[in-house]
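Quick one from the shared queue. A colleague (R.T.) flagged nucleoside diphosphate phosphatase as missing a structural entry in our internal table.

Convert sequence to structure tokens.
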Amino acid sequence: MKRTKMAGVFLFVGFLLVYLMFVKHHYSTTNTRDHHGLGGLHGPPPPRDQTVSDRLTDDRTASTGRSYQYGIMFDAGSTGTRIHIFKFKIELNEAPTLAHETFRAITPGLSAYADDPEKCAAGIMDLLVLAQSIVPPSSWTLTPLVLKATAGLRLLPGEKAEHLLDRVRALFAESPFLSRDDSVSIMDGTDEGISAWITVNFLTGDLHSADSSTVGMLDLGGGSTQITFSPQDEKTIQTSPTDYIRSFRMFNSTHTVYTHSYLGLGLMSARLAVLGGVDASPLEGSTELVSPCLAPESSGSWEHADVVYTVRGQKAGEPVYEACRTKVEKVLYRKVVKVSEAADVDFYAFSYYYDRAVDLGVIEEETGGTIRVVDYMEAAKRVCGGPSLSPLQSPFLCLDLVYISVLLQELGFPPNKQFKLARTIDQVETSWALGATFHYIESLKTH
């Protein structure tokens, strides 16, 4: 009898142990499957110390090895605020590709609300609503939301600019997207140059392989001008000013670039300097500017930074081209660093480089093309030495062309150097916005 009871007890304990082992194995398998994203659409939340990059990587390890990632970039310029909503296709062990871009612009720019920051909210909210309609809700919390302000806010008094940015930060914090402390900021010129360089080299495919040679980027804006390229000569890195050399990670590769933004050497600021003005509100009665770069005896008006100037040409005398070139050389004297290696690098040129080439008929406005330094030089001689400009041409075309040709040579480009001019590559705008979005997403991997 005792043996029977003992046998029953052992049998019961044996069954209990087998059952417990089965349950443990079952839950262990289920938890492992869910952690890798195969146990349902949601799965367990990621560990508290897991980064955004880790979560994106987990998403990419789904059975297809492919997923989509979104990025939202607000370009807050002086004349308007533009939103770029990028959709990237992510493939395992490959650089992302741009699947789609949604673009929308509103006016005026943020700086117009400097005295009443609250009024900027409506426009920003409209753009955020657009973003929510484009990005799937399941991707909202993983989609970085960024605003970079450029010239308009740089020129505002610091306190007014900060109040505007604080209002945008509050709106971003209330949105469902990924917003951090550094999501809203004023972009410096160097970052603008690097971001435009990333955009161009991504669109040309040169960032997709560590072995590819990259192209350089030249941008001539109204207030500043940028040059960015990847130096191959160690001498360039060693002899350049320290803050002209920057390194950063992109697509699992480290890139070192020579980059600098020359504030005050953009075309409109340069015009003012060449005409004899200064970048500040003139004193009463000092808005008349006389310049050898204008047609002799000509007279007209020009508005810059909310000031209307009377501009006049000098009396006929020294040939206009030579006199203007001398004036431009004085304005640029010792303000630009010449870098010899730039002559050997392929460059894309944007903004006013492009616009003046269109004015000359060298390229088509829609399709772009190529131009050489000597083309700007010869056009300058022709325009400056020709009869008075027709009403359809800008009275500043002579000045602009002389300035561009001298600036390019001061940067280190010989007369026969050729540049590519493009507003879009594969129908994507060649602005800094795409590059800045990639740069920001890359920064998430270190946080």
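DSSP finds 13 helices and 17 strands in the chain.
Confidence is low (pLDDT under 50) at residues 18-64.
Added to the table.
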